[in-house]
Amino acid sequence: MRSKVLLAGVMVLLSWAAVAKQQVLLVGDDDYPPYSYKDPSGKPVGLYSELLSKVSAAMPNFSIELRVAPWQRALTEVEQGQIMGLYPPYKREALRPWMHYSVPLLVETVVVVCRKEVASKYQGAAWPEGFSGLKFGNNTGFQTPGDRFFAMVKEGKITLDEAKTTEQNLQKLMGGRIDCYPNDRRAISSEVARLKLDASDVVEVASIGQEQGYIGFTSVRDGYPYMDAFIKEFNETLDSLRASGAVPPLE
């Protein structure tokens, strides 16, 4: 009888080992609604979190643990290898040569909004050359405005006053402390609605392109012997879910 109990215990352990998944930690932006942020309890939520959770559930050998942190800190920790990956950076290979990427997760449409008093003079202006002389906001650490924009900042043609969040930048815009602000259209509109701002005072003056969000991975290999296998399985699983219609197409 005792041998049967022991055998049953061994079988349970073997069965558990066969289905156990390698857990992988990914860190997201803690304040980028509706894409990546935290709810009042600190739980990661948003469009990227929802997508990553669906992929995690479908992966045969890995499970994804999601956490959120301030964006600039998360970037530094990934660069130093303290965490394996973060979401959702845009692909900036020249700026971050140490980072490599998953397949794209979502598409974001980047626009410029300005105060109503400023917007009428700059509607349809060429980006960014046509906005010389203005004061811009930007989320700290975001490369959303593009290389030429930051070159104009260095040249003194544009003034830059960054803040951590979309909410803080919109509040500065409404208060007249900045003239314009570039970010994803959906991120701006969701915060305008949440903050109950007068949408007529936040005027879109230019669409400056589309960006794709990715998982960005560290180049530090120590501590992550499974990294390549995870990236391969993640990419294949997401592609399969898209092909089946289980997650929306990339558009």
What attributes characterize this protein structure?
251 residues; five-stranded mixed sheet; Solute-binding_3/MltF_N; D-Maltodextrin-Binding Protein, domain 2; signal; 8 helices; Solute-binding protein family 3/N-terminal domain-containing protein; three-stranded antiparallel sheet
Quick structural overview:
The protein contains eight helices and 13 strands. The chain has about 250 residues and is of the alpha/beta class.
Protein described:
This protein is an alpha/beta fold. The chain folds into 2 domains: 22-106 and 213-244, 3-Layer(aba) Sandwich (D-Maltodextrin-Binding Protein, domain 2), CATH 3.40.190; 108-211, 3-Layer(aba) Sandwich (D-Maltodextrin-Binding Protein, domain 2), CATH 3.40.190. The chain is 36% helix and 27% strand. The protein is built from 8 helices and 13 strands. It has helices at residues 2-19, 47-58, 71-79, 116-122, 147-154, 166-174, 185-194, 227-244, and strands at residues 22-29, 31-32, 36-38, 44-45, 62-69, 85-87, 100-101, 106-115, 135-139, 159-163, 180-184, 202-213, 216-217. Strands 5-1-6-13-7 form a 5-stranded mixed beta sheet, sandwiched between helices. A 3-stranded antiparallel beta sheet has the order 2-3-4, with helices on one face. The chain has a 3-stranded antiparallel beta sheet with strand order 11-8-12. Strand 2 and strand 3 form a beta hairpin. The protein is elongated. It starts with a helix and ends in a 7-residue tail after the last helix. Residues 4-18 have low confidence and may be disordered. Residues 1-20 form the signal peptide. It holds the Pfam family SBP_bac_3. Belongs to the bacterial solute-binding protein 3 family. Keywords: Signal. Residues 24-248 form the Solute-binding protein family 3/N-terminal domain.
